[in-house]
Amino acid sequence: MKLTEIILFGGTAEGRELAGFLGKNNINSIVSVVSSYGGSLVSDYPSLKVRTGILPEEDMRQLFKTEMPDLIIDATHPYAASISSTIKTVSTDMSIDTISIYREGSSSEGYICFDSLDEMISYLNTRGKGKTIYSTLGAKASDGLSKIHDYEKRVFTRILPLEKSLHMAIEAGLSPGNITCMQGPFSEELNEAMFRHTGAEILLTKDSGKAGGFPEKVKAAEKLGMEVLILRRPETNPGITVEEAEDLILKRVRDK
What we know:
Elements: E1 6-9, H1 13-24, E2 29-33, H2 36-40, E3 48-52, H3 57-67, E4 71-74, H4 81-93, E5 97-100, E6 112-114, H5 117-127, E7 133-135, H6 142-145, H7 151-154, E8 155-159, H8 163-171, E9 179-181, H9 188-198, E10 202-206, H10 214-223, E11 227-231, H11 242-255
Parallel strand pairs: 1-2, 1-4, 2-3, 4-5, 6-11, 7-8, 7-10, 8-9, 10-11
Helix pairs in contact: 3-4, 9-10
């Protein structure tokens, strides 16, 4: 017996937008997010069920087997390559249709880009000595940031307001006074105020696109004369936009 029509992965802005679309169209769906905080941001509809927590491959297989969805939607973060790979593997093995949501990137022209965090840290330890650094790479980058010379004094980081994220940053040795826990995206003005307050000279960022507040972030940094370092996105298969996904979903519903 089919319990669920669609399983949607993603606590992203795109994921929340699609969850609202599914709810408004009364499509029985499960929205899978990592944290309870991410779950609290999903709109409340009778046709939506929200599950929270990391989903290992075997648990994912069991979920798909139990729910028997018609469609899997991967709306995870562009940098969440591991979970996207697992979704693709499991859905392919079980012959379930899958679509990935594409988040348009931003131009990196004029900025210094790196393929890995290790490369970025190496650059900072040779070319960025003594400069104050503001990281918006997220809590998972904390261990890498702790490899920067004098990181306790000159590295500031902005992470999600989650207990797990704060624990990761503190466990890595980052100074509690240099940690900001806030949910973005942020305006150019707020970014500028944060950068100015810390005296930051270098911004570390992902290419999170318009949905992730990338333009506002780099504009604020440029206004203050900061150097901008970008961690490139992992190589992934191209996906479709939220609007294209909504059209596809409605067509599938009509054709059933």
